[in-house]
Structures
1.
Amino acid sequence: MFPNLFIAGAPKCGTTAWVHYLSSHPEITFCRAKEPHFFSSDIQGTNVAENLDEYLGLFDVTSDHSVVAEASVMYIYSRDAPKQIHELNSDAKILIFLRNHLDFLMSYHNQAIFTGYETEQSLEKAWQLSPDRSQGRHVPPDCTDPLMLNYPELCRFANHIRNFYEVFPAEQIQVRWLDEWKSNPRQTYIDILNFLDLEDDGRHNFAKVNGAHKHRFEWLGNLTKTRPGQSPSFALRVASAVRKLSGIKRLYIGRTLRQLNSVESRIADVAPGFRQMIEAQYATDRAEVNAIRSDFSNSHRRAG
């Protein structure tokens, strides 16, 4: 059975939370790799599987699972992903989570620093570097693709979701804004289950998942970091050697160290002038997103 649900982003907009919420449903199984990014082949350094067989091997599928799912937040920015997913399974359903543009920028920038993709501590300065980085200048060594740090482009949600609506029928796509589902996660959960043609399993717990983090010790963060498509860190290579020598199939040294070295943090606010600029620049994007949903839905109804 091929995957039939793809949570396609955007990053820091609730994807991890919804993987957590939905994975407890008895009819849903998620890919073992948190973000396989198999279909974002046009974004460098994201893919964790070399071929389709290896990708499909990341799923544990039984007759009890009517929904086989994965979540890869960079799919929303990939020109290839919608077409390639459609080629694999034209009946697949697509979930996309978005949020207020400034909140997204602040959270994404903080996460990029945490993972090592970003080295500029100031969001305003990182924003200003975007044009240079698009030309390959001032790109941090651990950033595998400058697209990941093109902050103005990352925020153009309407352009990105349109790529999915141009490939998939509107009834196979749901776009959710974080502020809307956060105010009533239970109802959103029921709506998503209806979208997936599943019965409500009665879930009422929607605790916060994957908030802002920072490293306790930067040196340990650098020692244990890992990037898709790149060689493992020294610590992870040691863990792999120990696992092979001991015969233990799973030895989560790297993961454990990263968890112990991670603490919740509060994201610093931005200057009022930068806030006003972002709000003005993306004032119409949310309306455009909602218009795309409506236009494609109406077009499908007329065609039907």
2.
Amino acid sequence: MLLVVIVNYKTPGLTADCLKSLQSEIDDTSVGPIHVVVADNKSPDDSLQHLRKTIDEQGFGHWCSLLPLPSNGGFAYGNNAPIRTALASAQPPEFVLLLNPDTVVRPGAIRELVRYMREHSDVGIAGSRLEDPDSTPASPAQVSAFRFHTAVNEFSSALRLGPISKLLSRHEVGLIPGDAVAACDWVAGASMIIRKSVFDKIGLLDEGYFMYFEEVDFCLRAARAGFACRYVPASRVVHLVGQASGVTDKSKANKRRPAYWFQSRRRYFVKNFGRGYAILADLAFVVGFVPWRIRRIIQRKPDTDPAHMLFDSVKHSALFQNAGGEGVGGERKTT
């Protein structure tokens, strides 16, 4: 069985559209039984009523259930709740698919992920090709396969200087999307399939992250446990970037990043590499970002950086803040 988990928080319209796109996948007998759980992170709007109505009116009740949660504990918290229950059941799922509410599944997307995982037992995690609504197979895809974050790519991505970027290209976080399956360090949590044995060996997502970096952390733990990660472009999923969180919305390029983004980043570096390395990564970003900001003004380049990025990066640095990078609403332990 495949368990699909969608975490909703004040996005009932997007979640409903995502559910509707899943109908053709449910009917695909080659995949096997699919059960979808929509976990609602205590949305303060009419999400529960809206989604219950959608499930009832569309006849999704035989394959989709709604799970109201007692608090908004973030992305990992919302996903872990139904996954924990499913893994403890008499018939645990073979795979779990994490799916964002701001996605629309193209026909065959889930079939391709499941097929690839069944044919490659060494692969523990795989991700889809994420694309804009008007994309075709031949058009550029969104970057959804990555290398792990390091101090080197923190510096390079902040500096944005051609010769340096070229010299350090093999350290860049984002991998250029291709048409073939590719090895990578981690994939975007917007559409990420996970083998049951990964959970058995490393546990669930770390709920110490409120949002962002939790999938990076999970893939790093899986890699250290010996599981491979792959980008599977035959699985095509439309991703309405930033529509669920509002943080990475392309139409709001200068929007200030919330404190939890910096807390998650700090937690990732401190937890996995130590506080000293986290401070080094912070310094690398600042050393690259300052000359970029000066050069941007001199060359009159458009300002696409989040507001107050330099100030917030320093303020939330591991040099000054809690080394663990507490999550919003308190730190939660990995289970």
3.
Amino acid sequence: MKKFAKLLFRSKTGTLGFLLTILIVVLAIFAPQIAPNDPNKINAVHLLKPPVWEEGGSTRFLLGTDNLGRDLLSRIIHGSRVSLLVGFFSVVVAGVIGSFLGLMAGFFGGIVDSAIMRLSDAFLSIPRVLLALVVLSVMSPGMLTLIFVIGVTNWVVYARLIRSEVLVIRQLDYIKAAYIARCSNSRIIFRHILPNVFSSIIVVSTLSVAQSIILEASMSFLGLGIQPPTVSWGGILADGRNYLASNWWIATFPGIGITISVVGIMFLGNWLRDVLDPKNQGIL
């Protein structure tokens, strides 16, 4: 851990990504304590209040209010919870499905490999956003549905990556020795192969969280994702799209929140990719 910490703070982008990610996680965990106001409280007296630094702004609403008088800062803070939950658990779903199928395809080969790869080709032939829209329009929208849909539409990345690594690893001497020792297939896969591809799973998962956050915001913006009264960044953007010309802050600040979280996670993911790359293991 000390070596990783030194490497992290030696990298400017890695440090920035780590700090931004920690900031978003802290906001999400302690949202009820940090948010200055109730995110869903409607206040007809304070409709469309501008940010505090503009004329007519109030220190009570630092980033202003929306068309229903709800505190924008509090809604953005609470919206981070939804984005991180959807991003994390959808990556868990995609990672479990994709990693398992990738292990099976790379290890057994033959018909199993061909069937899984053709299935992945079928998924790749359909744009991810379009597939998510079709499924969400049929199923009842909600957080669990959104997590499932995002996870199912993202497993191909894991499957193809893990398969390619397993094809190389299964030719190594220690795998052949495990065969000679009459180890079962399940033991070889989960005891000897999986730990050696786990770093790749971590890197892909980190980068996939950022993509899932954007997809969640897109689906919520279109009304097929998180439903009111649950606060989400995409929902706040949808509320503010009709006020872009007159009340810019309603859509601008949640957009900045999405950008900061995605950039932070991407920077951290890129740093992890460089550090966990086998070619760079000499620096650890």
4.
Amino acid sequence: MLLASLFLAGCGGTLGAAPAGTSKVPAATGTNDSIGREGIDKLRVGNKVRIEFTGVPSTDVLYPHEEQIKDDGTITGLPYLTNSVPAAGKSTRELEQDIHALYVPRYFTRITITVTATDRFYSVGGEVNRPGSIRYDGDVTIIKAIHAASDFTIFANKKKVQLTRPGKKPITINCEKALEDPEKYDVPVYPGDIIFVKRRIL
């Protein structure tokens, strides 16, 4: 109860001042790409994907297909399809649409394609109760990531949560305002991101 009350009292933040030399996310609509959001949530070479087929006639059985995206960015071996399917650089939703177009109407009048990336992670460290790597589920924000790591410890500096994205400079997020105004300050988290919660000075 103590930890929960401390969290609710504290985790909500503006994207506070970033350390010298780092970029700062503006408190606007989230369209700014200062931390490189565009293209981050795309499949890459080496990602493992699972493709599931539902909604087909009972006479047709299409088993789920799992595969690692090849070096050329494609996947192969899907039922009925002889050609490879480009996958790298697409979101799971885009890949679902592309695969659907290959089956309908050529093979089926309707089919539902579900693509899941099975091996993408982000990490949360520092002053959280359960630090470590966490599987990316496609809908993660800085607040959800902290929750997934069992929330802040009592020593956490909630105003200085560092988010580092591959190839980008780290930014500092004030998590207190992210909870108070999620639309404005609760930034998305993507695969490969590293979140570090600093220790507050007692």
